[in-house]
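Reference record:
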Amino acid sequence: MIAGGVIVAVALAAVGVVLYVTDGDVPGYYALGLLSLPLVLVVGTWLHRVLPRRVQLVGAAILAVAGIGGYLLWPGDAWWALGQAALAPALLLIAEGAGFLESGAPPLRMPGDDFSGPFGPP
């Protein structure tokens, strides 16, 4: 049985595709991106749970290189957008490996957050 959230994500993506096909201009492009995002997140989460870590890393590396390489070979607005999106899986896997995505992880601290040294009170 398919969860209701998946059905809603597929329906939203379908509406986005229809809007883009009927109006291929900038509003249709943004509508497609916004409305397909839930489906991308559902599929990405499912793949993250099912695939072994090594397969995820190799797939993310291939996707990142293909996205950037595609833009370098065929510069254009579509490859520019895909090149940026293609880096997302690799960046998320790096962030997860560094512990930034763990619920119990301490918040990211920047130098000077503790107000010690020259940044502290007088």
Summary: The mean pLDDT is 79. Helices lie at 4-22, 26-50, 53-73, 77-85, 88-97.
